[in-house]
Request: fold
Amino acid sequence: MSTLYTNIGELTTNDARLGDASAMGRLYNAALVEEGGRVAWVGRASDAPPADQRVDCAGAAVLPGFVDSHTHLVFAGDRVDEFVARMAGSPYDGGGIASTIAATRAASREELLRASLSRAGALLAGGVTTLEVKSGYDLTLDGEVRLLELAGALTEETTFLGAHALAPEFDDRDEYVGFVAGAMTTACAPHARWADVFCDRGAFSVDEARHVLSSARDAGLELRLHGGQLANVGAVGLAVEMDCASVDHCTHVSEHDLAALAGSSTVATLLPGAEFSTRSAYPDARRFLDAGVTLALATDCNPGTSYVTSMGFVIALAVREMGLSPDEALYGATRGGAVALRRDDIGHLGLGARADLIVLDAPRAAYLAYRPGSNLVRTTVRSS
Ligand SMILES: [Zn+2]
Reply:
């Protein structure tokens, strides 16, 4: 079965071998053929080959599905009171995670699944075709396994985040870090692709994070890291040292950090929803691009610091507040996210890529930043 998408006003492929030969790989008055879930043909609409089905895009923009490479989608409860207090002037110190842990532990599997599916549905409706989902709101051995099983119902990109906060049962940091790096990693590794640590001021130190990540790697997990959200404690250097696929937040980074990232295969994932929701200063994304760093954008969907389920909103923030052009933000939300997950089959619409795509209710992809606040995604197509 093949499908022809035709009358595409503006097709963004993110493949420089196609179209205008820019990084965006743009074509106009274009068509695309999907066959067997893959992109089989891309070119001018007037040259399109026949297919079993035909979708007339009527001049709309078509782009690769968004890759949301950083979410904490599986949780119960909310932290709206904390948000309201913060907007009234209370600073964020990371302490609110404990209230989400209590609510998540108390929720049944069915409640958690229903709430998570609802949020995943919102992401999908807004154009997300691949998402990463972390554990980290239980912090007991069985509980973290439960959260990863639920995450596995939503995605293959599951991440073990036992080192999200100190579990409330533990007074001794070393004891908890040893538990996470030992028995918890062993139990969780079969249910996860990735391991992550919240390495920041008030969270886990660089040495603690290195210990957890080393054990995770020995258990067969690939690595990513939260770093530089609240302060620069050296997380970026650790991420590069450990060859993490991505270091996420990067709100506080030095020139030395940027140089290290640029010479590495570690992506910097920026999460402007977190700055928005904590009323913090945004990182200057231009610094990263000028230094040669690969950027990704993600929602960081979580109940405390970024209850965001719209990649369109993230793109608009990145353009307005972080200095990216609409194309740079779009690239970060698609191909950048794919690189942050070490995937080359998604995030672009080159020949052979997964035919995961978005048909916009707009003639140009730049409308995502130009017309913020409404969902401009007409159709999300996710090949299975
Ligand atoms: Zn996060």
In short: The mean pLDDT is 97.
